[in-house]
Write a structure and sequence with these properties.
mainly beta, Immunoglobulin-like, five-stranded mixed β-sheet, 23 strands, elongated, membrane
């Protein structure tokens, strides 16, 4: 019984989608600018004909002016979107259907290019600063030395394309032009750059930080070069390591050349550290973003044994008390180093020596 209600809901929803799709069959789409007055015509009806309009199956309640078969909506906005149907009076025959979509023309897109696979190629991405609310396409054109280069769409990111470098160390600049186009207008933006200026690797991968046994201030950090960097041997990377204890906000930094490991030697014993790395081509480009942060705690020192009060009392009770000094020693009579002899000679032997001396 528990699964019957969700199943019924799914069936009703599916039926509603099918009905809505059938209602839209044969409907034409009309795109209009937000804030404008929009006029819709009821098919081929003449100017003297009378018609009734509905939106999504209900009466039209928006501000409007109707003249015969014409319906004019005043200052449309996003709430004006919908499926408008008109019916000829008085027989009520449906004569037309219009899908109204309200939006705005695109503004200049924001465009950026980057090479994280140098020297294979680069990619460019783009986006609109403001939404258009209606379908908007993008035309991308890339040129180098007056020649158009082939672009390949990204399989995951819809607003990204990939371009192969036609040659390395070229003195000619690249020009990328992106045009946003929709039913209400279009806008373009272009950037120009040298190949070396867009080189930016991805962050290092598989970062591991571990304590070193019996070394209370050391942490061993290891990592891998970014897998997207295709030729680390001929185009080596250098790395920038930063680390700090969680109890502080100030980072410490170390720059490393052509190495994928480093030992931190000045960590605080027993304090948890946060560690990150960035990568950069040794000759050109800029630093990558920071890697995913890892945490590690250095080896902690063995605490000194603290003697409790009870243990201290037991030690005092089991320690034999020194023998009292002889009367001669108390009187200050020098008997061949009496004091030293009393400290190191058993009580019985001291008594024998004293009797002989008298």
């Amino acid at each position: 019984m528990a699964n019957i209600v969700p199943s019924v809901c799914c069936v009703v929803l599916a039926a509603a989608v099918v009905v809505f799709a059938k209602r839209q069959q044969g409907a034409r789409i009309q795109y209009e600018r937000m804030g404008s007055d929009v006029t819709m015509l009821c098919g081929s009806l003449g100017g003297d004909a009378s018609a009734t309009w509905k939106v999504n199956g209900t009466d039209v309640k928006a501000r409007q002016v109707q003249e015969g078969p014409r319906l004019t909506l005043l200052e449309v906005n996003l709430s004006s979107n919908g499926l408008y149907s008109c019916f000829q009076n008085p027989d009520g025959e449906r004569r037309d259907q219009i899908i109204l979509r309200v939006g705005i023309p695109p503004k200049e897109p924001s465009v950026a290019c980057r090479s994280n696979t140098y020297p294979k190629g680069f990619y460019c991405s783009w986006h609109l600063q403001d939404p258009t609310y209606i379908p908007t396409d993008f035309d991308v054109h890339v040129k180098h030395n007056q020649k158009s280069l082939e672009t390949q769409k990204d399989a995951v990111h819809k607003n990204r394309c990939h371009v192969k470098f036609p040659e390395l160390f070229s003195s000619f600049k690249y020009r990328v032009n992106v045009t946003a186009v929709n039913a209400l207008g279009k806008a373009s933006y272009a950037i120009t750059f040298d190949d070396f200026s867009i080189v930016k690797p991805d962050p290092p991968e598989k970062v591991i930080a571990s304590p070193i046994p019996d070394n209370v201030r050391r942490l061993e950090v290891k990592w891998k070069s970014p897998s997207t960097w295709p030729d680390v041997e001929n185009f080596p990377l250098k790395y920038f390591l930063r680390y700090r204890p969680l109890i502080r906000d100030q980072w410490q930094h170390v720059e490393l050349s052509d190495s994928t490991h480093h030992t931190i030697t000045d960590a605080f014993a027993g304090k948890e550290y946060i560690i990150q790395l960035a990568a950069k081509d040794t000759e050109i480009g800029t630093w990558s973003e920071w890697s995913v942060a890892v945490h590690a705690t250095p080896w902690m020192e063995e605490p000194e044994k603290v003697i409790s009060t009870t243990e201290a009392e037991a030690i005092v009770e089991t320690t034999p008390s020194p023998a009292p000094p002889s009367p001669k020693c108390r009187l200050g009579i020098a008997v061949g180093g009496c004091s030293a002899l009393l400290r190191s000679t058993p009580l019985l032997l001291v008594s024998v020596l004293l009797s002989l001396m008298w």
